[in-house]
Each structure stands twice: as structure tokens, then as C-alpha cells.
Amino acid sequence: MGKSWEEDRQRQIERLESEIEALRNGHKTILGHRYAEFFAHAKQIGQLFKESRAIPHVERQRLWEELTALCDRVREESDRERQSRINNSRVKKSVIEDNIREAYHWAKGSNSIADLQEAERRLSAITEKLKDGWGGFTPTTDLFESIGGNEGKLTKEDRDYLWEKWREAKAAVRERRAWLSELHYDHMRDTAGACLSLAHSDPRAAKEKVKHANAEMKQHPMNKDQYADIRRLLDEAWEMASRAASVRHQEWRERMESHMERWAELLEKNESVIAKLEQQIEQCEEMEANARGEDFAATVRGWIEEKMDKIRDIRHTNEELEERIESVKTKLSR
């Protein structure tokens, strides 16, 4: 019985020593301890102490102190590493928080889409910095921090805090974009209203203004509903101007056709007058040939000259009338 008890005691001592040695040398990587595994193992060894009742007090005390010292040392190492991670995280957090603050103020002060795009570009770049490591920073920062042992990892608390700040800045971009859209919408509604006002009174000017407004919309971004409303107003102005121009064109055609009809009638009358004058000239020429005296013959020649002058004037007028008619015909055929 005594020998069996002695063997059991020795076996329990050796098992604890083996477990403590395994704890000392295990649960490590090239990057350091795997602390969760280490302390889980230490807890198992603590349970093993309770089960090892055959070990004398002195041996138990020695082994327990050895385990405790090992755990204290690793715990201190864990605390130092944790504090180092906290400190390193604060370094990175401070830099990123400054970047977010700059993007936030850039968004708040934006007066153009280009400014908002710059704010969004900055926020997009910040998402790279929120990842583990020094991606998104300058090579100099990366090198300096890496030499100092700072891996660029954020603690969960710091990461959550920064993401909250990032979302606030993103919200500021959305709010400013909505404000700019409303500003652009008001401006474009005024422009569209001016197009509508001109549509009846000056269709051509209205259409030119609509064309300019269409080009201007590209420089004044709005949301989908606002854009659709302005597009509707400009289309309405264009259609109204087109109808007004069509009515004006029809009225102009009717006026021109009326003018041609009147000019054609005048041409016909003038030709009749010319025919009568030519008959009168023939009569005068007979009178001149049968004249009994030179004085009367000279008087008749004067009559003939006067009638020929009238014919020339009427034919000149007719030429002008024909030119007008041809000009209008050309315009109407376009």
C-alpha cells in the first residue's frame, strides 16, 4: 500500500511538472504568446492541482508558486502588449480623427459639387486608413511607425469611435448635397419660368433659352425628382414655343400669299395700262404723220414721249413686283 501511494504521488508530481513545462514552452508563435490558449491551459492545470491529493504540501507549494510566477510573468507581458496596442491605436486614431475632421469641415463648407466630391474623396481615402496596417498613409509614416513596432492596428473601441465620426462626416456630405440640390433646383425653376414666359411672345428666343438651360443643368446637379420637374417645365416651354412659332409661321405664310395675290393683281392692271398707252402711242404716231404743221407735230411727239416715260416707269414697277413675288415664293418653298 505504501509503495503504491508513493508511486501515485510521484506520478502526480511528474504530471504537474510536465504540464507546467508545457505551459511555459507552448502556446507561442513568432509574434508572441497565444494568451487565451495559455490561460485556458493554466486553468486546466489549476484543476489538476485539486485532483492531485497525494502530493505533499511542500511539493504542492513549490509547484504552485512555479505556476503562479509563470502566469504572473505572462500576464504582465500580456498587459504590456495590451497597453502598447492601446497606445499605438491612439497614435493612429489621432491621425485618422484629424483627417475625418478635415473632411467634415470640407463637406460643411462646400459650395459646389466639386467641393463635395473632394470631401467624398477624402472620406474614401480614410476607409483605407481604418484597415489594419498603415495602408493609405505616406510611405514615410509606414516606415517610421513600423520601425517603432507600431503595426497600425486599432482597438475595437477606437475603430468603433472612428467609424461613428466617419459616418457623421458622410452624413454632412449628404446634407450639403441636398442643400446644393435645392439651391440648384430653385435657380433652374426660375430659368424654366423665364423660358415659359417667352414662349408666346418670342418663340425663337424661348427655344434658345431652353437650349442654354439644358446645358446649364449639367453644371447644376439635382436629385432625380427635381431634375424630372425641371425637365418637364423645359419640355413644356419648348412645346409652347414650337406651337407659337408654328402659328406665327402660318400667319406669315398667309400674309405673304396675300401680298403675292395683291402684287399679281397690280401686275395685271399695270400690263393693261401699258397696253392702253401703247395704243395711244400708235394713235399719236398717226396724228404726227398726218399733222399739217410742224408745231402740232412737235406737240404730238411730246405726248408720245410722255406716254413712253409712263410705260418705262410702270415696267420698272412691274420688275420690282416680280422680284418680290419670286422672293416670297422662294421663302415659302423652304
Describe the fold and architecture.
The longest helix has 66 residues, at 224-289. The protein has helices spanning 2-25, 35-51, 57-108, 113-129, 139-147, 156-201, 203-217, 224-289, 294-333, and strands at 28-29, 32-33. It folds into 4 domains: 2-84, no CATH class; 91-176, Methane Monooxygenase Hydroxylase, Chain G, domain 1 (Up-down Bundle); 186-246, no CATH class; 248-333. The N and C termini lie far apart (130 Å). Strands 1-2 form a two-stranded antiparallel sheet. Helix 1 runs parallel beside helix 3 (57-108), helix 3 (57-108) runs antiparallel to helix 4 (113-129) and helix 8 packs antiparallel against helix 9. It is mainly α.
Main sheet, how many strands, which sense, barrel?
Answer: 2 strands, antiparallel
**CATH class division of the largest domain:** Mainly Alpha
Dominant shape:
rod-shaped
Number of helices: 9
What is the CATH T-level topology of the largest domain? Methane Monooxygenase Hydroxylase, Chain G, domain 1
Mind sketching the topology for me?
Layout: H1 2-25, E1 28-29, E2 32-33, H2 35-51, H3 57-108, H4 113-129, H5 139-147, H6 156-201, H7 203-217, H8 224-289, H9 294-333
